[in-house]
Amino acid sequence: MAVTPIHSTVTVTTAATRVQVTADADIKPMSVYFEAAGANTGFIYVGLVTVSSTVYIARLAAGTSFSIGGVPGAGRLGGTGIQLSALYVDSSVSGEKVQVTYVYPTGG
User: Fold this and answer.
1) 3-state secondary structure string, the chain?
2) CB burial readout 51-65, b (16+ within 10 A) else e
3) How far apart are CA 45 and CA 58, in angstroms?
4) Are 98 and 32 in contact (CB under 8 A)?
5) What is the pLDDT along the chain (108 residues), one digit of tens a residue?
6) How many angstroms separate the CA atoms of 93 and 106, rounded?
7) Residue 15 burial (CB count, 10 A)
8) What are the residues whose beta carbons fall under 8 Å from the beta carbon of 54, sequence distance 6 or more?
9) Pairing verdict, β 19-20 and 88-91
10) What is the pTM (predicted TM-score) of this model?
11) Do 65 and 55 form a contact (C-beta atoms < 8 A)?
12) Distance CA 71, CA 20 (A)
């Protein structure tokens, strides 16, 4: 099976202000990988709409990563993958960045 990787950078402009990874509810990848930028000086928090410095799925220091994956049958439209628009990031320092990479099957 062929997959298509998509990569983006999410910046938390203001600390303690969550940022949605994407507003596109049709993106349901089979896996998502988050990596806090190496130049960050604080923490990146990965979570749902309630994400904060005390409520999160993962807390990432500079250069560390977290992934969610292994969802069979995921796809760009419909599918049963991870609801990417349900994921948010926050940071402890303004201007921090996180790299987000996700993959979905494209046939083959």
Assistant:
1) CEEEEEEEEEEECCCCCCEECCCCCCCECCEEEEEECCCCCCCEEEECCCCCCCCCCEEECCCCEEEECCCCCCECCCCCCCCHHHCEEEECCCCEEEEEEEEEEEEC
2) beeeebebbbebeee
3) 6
4) no
5) 677 899 999 999 999 999 999 999 988 888 999 999 999 999 999 999 999 999 999 999 999 999 998 666 555 555 578 899 999 999 999 999 999 999 877 765
6) 37
7) 15
8) none
9) antiparallel
10) 0.89
11) no
12) 21
Q: How far apart, in whole angstroms, are the C-alpha atoms of residue 91 and residue 13?
A: 9
Amino acid symbol at 91 = S
Structure tokens at 32: 């998502």
